[in-house]
Amino acid sequence: MEKVLKPMSGYLALVICLVLFIASVFFFITGAGSENIANIVLAGVCFVAFFFFIKGLMIIQPNHSRVLNFFGKYVGTVKDNGLFFINPLYSSQKMSLRSENLQGQTLKVNDKMGNPIEIAVVMVWQVGDTYKAAFDVERYSDFVKMQSEAAVRHLAMSFPYDNLEDDHAPITLREGGDKINSILEQELTDRLSKAGIVIQEARISHLAYASEIAGAMLQRQQATAIVAARTKIVEGAVGMVDLALKKLSEGNIVELDDERKAAMVSNLMVVLCGEKAAQPILNAGTLYN
């Protein structure tokens, strides 16, 4: 589990380092000039002390951290920014806490109905638990890439691309919108939590049928749209014909027998459902001649 440390300020240690460095240079110069062994020894001691203190100085930039270890044992994580002094025997690992974008590559997978599709996502993530990111996985950045790809594949295989083949599908990849994105975020969170990664946002950035079936699927979508439009037109035309017959009957405008009604219905349906404008025909006789 992550443990946050509050180390001491490093400004005093920096002053001590400067003093030790100046002292080592002074004793070395004076000892070398007079061949005084004691001054040379003091110069060596001051330099070793300088090296020891300078190794304990640590600068942490904003939204960065340092994971500290003491001979293989986790000590804690420093998340404050500035100049600090820690035990010089600690080993440290730099780790960024900034939000990062991951533009996933376009993957070719099969949806729930077995249709090959192309899908890609973009996600925003950051390190939330430095202990897990440093010690529970080998390289957390590679882990994020691989697990995000696995999550996208699982999402694509769990839902159909659209509802053309599955009319009862409650959610589809094309029309799911925020619901699909929420499911994707939860999938990524479950997979990446073991590495201490926090998912801030995940969205599908590319979604399409694979190139080998894109043409056929487009024709099917066009046919479905034409059938739906025709169905709507026929429903409207039937309503208009029914209304016309009722108005003629209620107003006693003309008396029509069944055969004339059938002819009128036929003519009205042709006019209302036809794609081209009707061509008027002048009938000089009667319906029967």
Automatic annotation (TrEMBL):
Compartments (UniProt record): Membrane
InterPro entries: Band_7, Band_7/SPFH_dom_sf
UniProt KW Membrane keyword: yes
Membrane topology term: Single-pass membrane protein
Leader sequence residues: none
Domain Band: 55-221
Highest taxon, organism lineage: Bacteria
Residues annotated as transmembrane: 12-31, 37-60
Cross-referenced SMART domains: PHB
Pfam families per the UniProt record, alphabetical: Band_7
Any one annotated GO CC term: membrane
Principal location listed in the UniProt entry: membrane
Keywords: Membrane, Transmembrane, Transmembrane helix
UniProt-recorded name of the protein: SPFH domain / Band 7 family protein
